[in-house]
Amino acid sequence: MEMHRSQTSYGKYRVLLEELERIGRVPELERALQKRVEKHYSEEIIDFTENSFPFQEIFERYRRVGRLFLGKRPAPGAKNREFLILQQQTLHDLQAELDEIVAREPTPAQRRTLFECHLRLGLLWRLFRKGVLKRKRYPAGYEISGQDADDSRLIFNLDPVEICYYGKRLARVEEPQMLGEGALWEVPRSCAIRVPEGDDAPETHGSVCFTLSCTKLKRGDPDLWQFLLQESFMAFLAKLERSNERIHALVQEMHRKKISWERLIEREVERPVGETLRQTLERSVLLQPSTSDFSRNVFLGYLEQIMRGVVFPPQTAIIPFGAVPSSLFVLHRGLAAVRDEHGNIVGYLQPGDLIGESMLVDRPAIAEVVALDRVEAIAFPREAVFSSPALPDLFMNCVQVLQDKLAASNYRAERFEELLEDPVRVKALRARYPTDPGGLLRTLARWKRSSSFPSQVAWTSSDS
């Protein structure tokens, strides 16, 4: 990117424009440039991107260069080759500057929002031309998309919006990004999206958003739809990772206030006993999103063909941090903990919970899962999953699970952040859930990670 900055420095840019003025215009190149400007940066698109990223500056640069080519006559003795080189250099410099303004501080690929990917690939313009993408301004307080709604629209916010969970605001989204990724997979929304109101309302008293019809996209551009399916799955993982960072800050704050986060959330864990593997699978989150009894039973039958039981001894990493999971797991018995990259326990897992979803897109785990005691789990090995007829439904249901995990994680963080703002409740929590540095949970939280995959002990269950 440093090369781009030097190429687009003001001095060189001015010299380049002066040289273009001296040489003049070549009709063939004039038409090529005019076509490029009209195709990608027309007045219609300029109006379309009002209140968007700083594209106005880029459009003005292109139009100035376009007028320069259109308004000058070729000087006597001008060489086409020299003019062509200058024109190509100009377009290269402007494109480099466009890339730099769109992503002035490039984000690592695994953390890049899908909206940013769209801008860099130029997909938004093509979708807008086809009528798949629409732009609309929503008034303050307007609910753009409701919770549990079967909404087939992806939403790209240009102005602030709020994410709400059962009427409670979980987050205020300031920066443009993609929202409602589950629409690509035809799963109901876990949260509502609305425009802030009152003192939190945007300065314009409304929010501009783009909405993308997934139904039209699937029908009109199936290749792009397939691409976005995987990108949306990875977007969920990136959002979960950011939620884990929020939880980590909350855990540190609780420890400073002498409150045991681990004890506080352990009370939410339930440990049903006496269930068979099939009963655990039927009650697991993996099957909850299924819509009909018929599809549920067919899906369950496919899963039973590829599942196997595994056992993890205490203090074993079921999924090491940063490793691509080898299997999907549904917990059957025992207690496991989710730990962030700093070693803090950020949550507990109980029978029926699903882990290892990043295996489906071949991405490293964003958290570590550790067995706190003897854990029995149902494993779905990678090879068996990708060769199973259940793969499409498995993907769809995992998206629903990820969506629900994200909503629950943000809801928990918001709830406990409010608790910490109340001195009376902080005092009560400190008395009821004091930190215990010598206790089992804190010991496990500091337990050193294994650098290798743990052994998985398979068993054949007579009750399965």
What does this structure look like?
With 464 residues, the chain is α+β, with helices and mostly antiparallel strands. The chain has three domains: 2-102, no CATH class; 114-220, Sandwich (Jelly Rolls); 235-459, Jelly Rolls (Sandwich). Helix content is 47%, strand content 17%. The protein contains 17 helices and 17 strands. The chain has helices spanning 2-7, 10-23, 27-40, 43-48, 55-71, 80-102, 114-121, 123-130, 214-220, 222-256, 261-266, 277-283, 293-306, 382-386, 391-420, 423-432, 440-445, and strands at 133-139, 143-145, 153-157, 161-165, 168-173, 178-179, 192-194, 206-213, 308-312, 317-319, 327-333, 336-339, 345-349, 354-355, 368-371, 375-381, 457-459. The strands form four sheets. Strands 14-11-16-9-17 form a five-stranded antiparallel β-sheet. A four-stranded antiparallel β-sheet has the order 1-8-3-6. The protein is flat and about 55 Å long. The model is unreliable at 1-21, 24-34, 36-59, 61-87, 101-122, 438-458 and 460-464 (pLDDT under 50).
Number of domains: 3
| CATH arch. level architecture of the largest domain | Sandwich
Structural class by secondary-structure content: alpha+beta
Question: How does the overall form come out from the CA principal axes?
Answer: flat
How many DSSP H or I helices? Answer: 17
Q: What is the CATH superfamily of the largest domain?
A: Jelly Rolls
The CA-CA distance between the termini, in Å, is 58 Å
Question: In what order do the strands lie side by side in the largest sheet?
Answer: 14-11-16-9-17
Strand content: 15-25%
The CATH topology of the largest domain is what?
Jelly Rolls
Number of separate strands: 17
The CATH top-level class label of the largest domain: Mainly Beta
